[in-house]
Amino acid sequence: MNRIPALLGLALLSMLGACHSGGAGHAEVPGDSSSREPFRGIAADEALRFTGTEPFWGGQLQGGRLTYTTPGNPAGVEIAIQRFGGRNGMGLSGTLDGKPFDMTVTPGTCNDGMSDRSYPFVATLRVAGETREGCAWSDAHPFSGPEHP
Q1: What does UniProt give as the signal peptide span (predicted)?
Q2: 137: exposed, middle or buried (Cβ count in 10 Å: 0-12, 13-18, 19+)
Q3: Distances in whole angstroms, Cα of residue 5 to Cα of each of 11, 48, 120
Q4: Is the sign of the CA dihedral 62, 68, 71, 75 positive or negative?
Q5: Which among 76, 4, 74, 91 is positioned nearest to 39, based on CA atoms?
């Protein structure tokens, strides 16, 4: 089943999310630019980490494998992921417990609401029938703020 339309919808949601400062009306928003180049802001070999609150969730993407963590499973579940570059971010698509797991990661200042950190990416996750908002970072694109809030 092709889940690209669902991921494109998630990309739109992530641009409208509370974490994102800016977006609408700017040249980098999909549909507002004549650029046809896919997003390349996160290298394929770059480890990407992400976190979200209410409910708490997080994890890491390394290569084609994603580890998804929750307070009930801090060791996490490993998920095989397909990755694609959209116009203003990337989509990650896999299956968790037999159900779709779709995440978009887009550039934008993000705050988790619980620390004094500022993250370079907005993460929007659709899992278990819910849409979850979060933030993401990598070594090449680190967060700013305290190491241990």
Answers
A1: 1-26
A2: buried
A3: 10, 23, 25
A4: negative
A5: 91
Rounding to the nearest 10 degrees, give the CA dihedral for residues 114, 118, 121, 124.
Answer: 20
Q: Which two tokens stand for residue 121?
A: 């990416």
**Mean of per-residue pLDDT scores for the chain:** 81
Please give the angle made by the CA atoms of 68, 134 and 74, to the nearest 5 degrees. Answer: 30
SS3 of residue 16 by DSSP: helix
pLDDT of residue 91: 94
Which strand (E) or helix (H) includes residue 14?
A: helix 4-16
CA distances 145 to 4, 108, 119, Å, are 34, 16, 9
**Contact of 48 with 63, CB cutoff 8 Å:** no
pTM of the model: 0.76
Tokens coding 104: 């978009």
Tell the residue number behind the tokens 């999310």, with chain if given: 17
Q: Does the pLDDT value for residue 65 go beyond 70?
A: yes
Distance separating alpha carbons of residues 112 and 123, to the nearest angstrom: 11
* Residue 116, pLDDT score: 87
